[in-house]
TrEMBL record:
Native source organism of the sequence: Bradyrhizobium cajani
InterPro entries with a match to the protein in the record: DegT/StrS_aminotransferase (IPR000653), PyrdxlP-dep_Trfase (IPR015424), PyrdxlP-dep_Trfase_major (IPR015421), PyrdxlP-dep_Trfase_small (IPR015422)
Keywords: Aminotransferase, Pyridoxal phosphate, Transferase
Modified residues (N6-(pyridoxal phosphate)lysine): K185
Pfam families assigned: DegT_DnrJ_EryC1
Keyword NADP: no
Family the UniProt entry places it in: Belongs to the DegT/DnrJ/EryC1 family.
GO molecular function, one term: transaminase activity
GO biological process, one term: polysaccharide biosynthetic process
Protein name (record): Aminotransferase class I/II-fold pyridoxal phosphate-dependent enzyme
Active site, renumbered: K185
Length: 373
């Protein structure tokens, strides 16, 4: 066994990536005008069961633009999970809307219908569904509630490429869905994101918002402020090659999850990811563990000890309702979400990248056992 440092993420770029990138260089198509953009948008839309895809520069700006495009009124409330990345709350607040947090399930780490029901007020106008770490949100009851109340739904599928909910692709739910293509994602373009919808008019609007809201008839006269969030042809070339291998990528991730499960099966003092629910099998975007209360140290200390043993880790998300920046803005002040607060302090993830070897999985699991012994 080697004892080289094991990074928390390591992408695999061994398909047609180099060939497609070389094609961009050879043809001179490196800007956002190149032909790989459309190909990538179509490939992702097809993989996610959507009609339209709009490629952008990252998953955070995808949420910003999507939230903005829904046409909600300033002060409208949007329900979000508190256990998520800041991008979700940032998109809501930047659109002039008010985030209202929901706790997570202690086992799946995802927002629940009970949480959503408790968070609804007369000002609720939308729900942001965010799938966490490899298992989707239990969508059916939340989608039903949203429909009954006429709420908009935005699905953040940033971590869910290739995942399904009761057989339907993640990224196919709600008015609009988004993906990220950061290098720890199942499809990467280095940096990148996409917004998907089935609504042609909304897709046109999203594409216009992505492109500074230039108008076809009078290019430099603007009726609205947009973003320059255009993806380059180089990134899309990577993306096309990555989507080609998505089913295989999901297989590799599932195998990583299974191997960790086998190595860690007899470790009683941690909670491992749920392997399957009645609506989905885990795709282990990352392999997270949560320390039980009988472990006398927290995630931060566990990660420090693993770092000393050459194992890269990342902390779990920190709750939105505990974010200094949001609290200073007066958001989510009176919220308390014990499940999310607990896993934020006691959860972290092990090396989970696609290039991880069996030997590295064994070493990472062994190191975790040692620090818990
Ligand atoms: C759930 C979720 N939403 C949004 C994002 C933001 O994506 P990006 O890093 O591409 O901005 C991430 C990134 O990991 C994420 O996990």
């Amino acid at each position: 066994m080697s004892d080289a440092f094991i990074p928390v993420n390591s992408p695999l770029l061994h398909g047609n990536e180099a060939e497609y990138l070389a094609e961009c260089i050879r043809t001179g198509w490196i800007s956002s005008e190149g032909p790989f953009i459309k190909r990538f948008e179509q490939a992702m839309a097809e993989a996610a069961g959507r009609r339209h895809g709009v490629a952008v520069t990252n998953g955070s700006v995808a949420l910003d633009i999507a939230m903005h495009a829904l046409g909600l009124e300033p002060g409208d409330e949007v329900i979000i999970p508190t256990f998520t990345i800041i991008s979700c709350a940032a998109a809501v607040t930047r659109a002039g809307l008010v985030p209202v947090g929901v706790d997570c399930d202690p086992a799946t780490w995802n927002m629940t219908i009970e949480g959503v029901e408790a968070a609804i007020t007369p000002r609720t106008r939308a729900i942001m569904l965010v799938h966490i770490y490899g298992l989707p949100v239990d969508l059916e009851p939340i989608m039903k509630l949203a429909k009954a109340r006429g709420l908009k739904v935005i699905e953040d599928a940033a971590e869910m490429h290739g995942q399904t909910y009761r057989g339907a692709p993640c990224g196919s739910f709600g008015d609009v869905s988004t993906f990220s293509f950061y290098p720890n994602k199942h499809v990467t373009t280095g940096e990148g994101g996409m917004i998907l919808t089935d609504d042609y008019a909304l897709a046109e609007r999203l594409a216009n918002l992505r492109n500074l809201c230039f108008q076809p008839q009078q290019r430099f006269i603007h009726e609205e402020l947009g973003w320059n969030a255009r993806m380059t042809n180089l990134q899309a070339a990577l993306g096309v090659a990555q989507v080609e291998r998505l089913p295989r990528t999901v297989e590799i991730k599932r195998r990583i999850g299974q191997l960790y499960d086998e190595h860690l099966a007899d470790v009683a003092c941690i909670r491992r990811p749920v392997a399957r629910t009645n609506y989905a099998d885990n795709i282990y975007w990352v392999y997270g563990v949560v320390l039980n209360n009988d472990v006398l140290f927290d995630a931060k200390e566990a990660m420090r000890r693993l770092g000393e043993k050459g194992i890269g880790t990342r902390p779990f998300f920190w709750c939105m309702h505990e974010q200094p920046v949001l609290r200073r803005m007066g958001f989510m002040l009176n919220e308390s979400h014990p499940n999310a607060e607990r896993i934020a302090r006691r959860g972290f993830y092990l090396p989970s990248g696609l290039a991880l070897t069996d030997d590295e999985i064994a070493r990472s699991a062994e190191a975790l056992k040692e620090i818990l012994a």
